[in-house]
Amino acid sequence: MKLKALIVDDEENARMLLKQRLNKFYPEIEVKDLCSNAKDALLSAIRNRPDVIFLDIQMPDMTGLEFFENLNELNLPIQAIITTAYSEPEYYKKAIRLGLADYLLKPIIKEELDAAIENVNARISSQLHLQQVHNLVNVLKSEQKISLTTGGSRIFVKPDTIVYATSDGKYSKLFFTNTQEETVMLGISELAELLPGYDFYKIDRFTIVNRHYILKISPRLKMLIFQFGDKQTQISISHAGAIHLLEMMENV
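The chain above was modelled as a monomer; its predicted structure follows.
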């Protein structure tokens, strides 16, 4: 796996030595930049988007761990390996707490560096796998259709085009974003079972709603307003149902 790397250390000799070792033993790692302080490193991380940062702890303006905390706030998916001469337990505990990939003591032993880089590769592979799964689920959710019987025929519906559905017990009426309506031969509970993972809420025994189209919930007026595109529609809702729906929406 090809990796982009950033080396952050206030000692020039330490920066150069680590770069030479990476170039010699790890051709798959491209060192994009060498930084002597956390401020320059932060700008470099934003500019170069490295996969991994080799990070000293003791630096003039802030510690390496403080730098990594700031980096996390930017939500950049970067792994970090501490390279330091300091073995204080508090530093190590904080590094573990922050989720750094490894903690190496200088002078760095090659076997330990091997293990640290292997750990980084494993973490990145795991993140890529999770992202691929997430992307696949989103694609399936956007493309997948469910099959429903309307009486004399079958229709195939994308769940995310359903704004809400109501039921009289045996049958359910679906209301779509294109303002069409369809009555299907399923009760509301049976219909809800076909919609896992599509963010539908059951607000009472006979109604399910798609949270993505909810514009306004009014417990006082006992009203629920939907918006899709430039269109709006509304339905009645009980006071208790409105309160319960508000709680569900706030906990998403």
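Helices lie at 12-25, 38-48, 64-73, 89-98, 110-143, 188-193, 239-250.
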